[in-house]
Each structure stands twice: as structure tokens, then as C-alpha cells.
Sequence to fold (131 residues):
Amino acid sequence: MKTPEGGLSLIIRSGDYESVHYALALASAALAVNKPAVLFFTMNGLRALTGPPPGLPDWNRDALMRERGVGDFETLLQACVELGGRFIVCEMGLRALGIDRAELRADVPFTVAGIVTLLEETKPGMHLLAL
Fold:
């Protein structure tokens, strides 16, 4: 049973590969040790959920991660999905960037919501981090 102590709520607002990759690594690690993880994608971070491949400008780094034996984007994303991560896509971010919900990946179970929902999902004992 997951307990919020030590769980994570991650605001993924940067559209660079490194930030998104590390957010997925943090979330999958928390989920693997039975801690909840909320992933809130907003602004340029939303580009990580478009595609495939995701619309991240330095996407070529993913192949290097695989070559070096580091969990790649797809592996980490699927781990978060399979381990029960909570995905929230920011409604404001979608509108601000002109991204239609239909452009987002169908294999990621997300809810379109806002900051209030993120704050409600961040239970006492969870850490809120922006990346």
C-alpha cells in the first residue's frame, strides 16, 4: 500500500530532455519503493507527451542513454505508467501553447486539470518539486 510519506509531486515545466528524463527517473524510483508520484506536465514540459518521438529539442540524448545502460525515456515513462503514477496535463499550459489534447500520447493515462488539482493531489508528507 502506498503511503504519502516521501512521495513526490513533480511539476515538469521545462521542455529540455534532461529535465523530463530526470523527472521520470525520480517518479519511477518513488513508485518502485511504493511511494506515490504525481507528474504534472505544463508549458514546454507538455512536449514530452507529444509524439512519438516527444517534441523535445535535445531528443538525440535518448539514444546515448540507452547505449550507456541508463534507463531511456520510453522505459522510464512506461515504468511510471505501469507502477501507477498519476499523470496530470495542465489545461492552462495546453491553451498557452496551442496544443490540442489529441496531439498527446494515447498510451499515457492522463487527466487534464489545473494547479488546484495538483495541490489537492500533493498530500501531506509528499515533496513538491519543479523541474
Summary: The CA atoms of residues 27 and 37 lie 5 Å apart. The longest strand covers residues 8-12. The domain at 8-130 is CATH 3.40.1260.10 (Hypothetical Protein Ychn; Chain: A,). The radius of gyration is 14 Å.
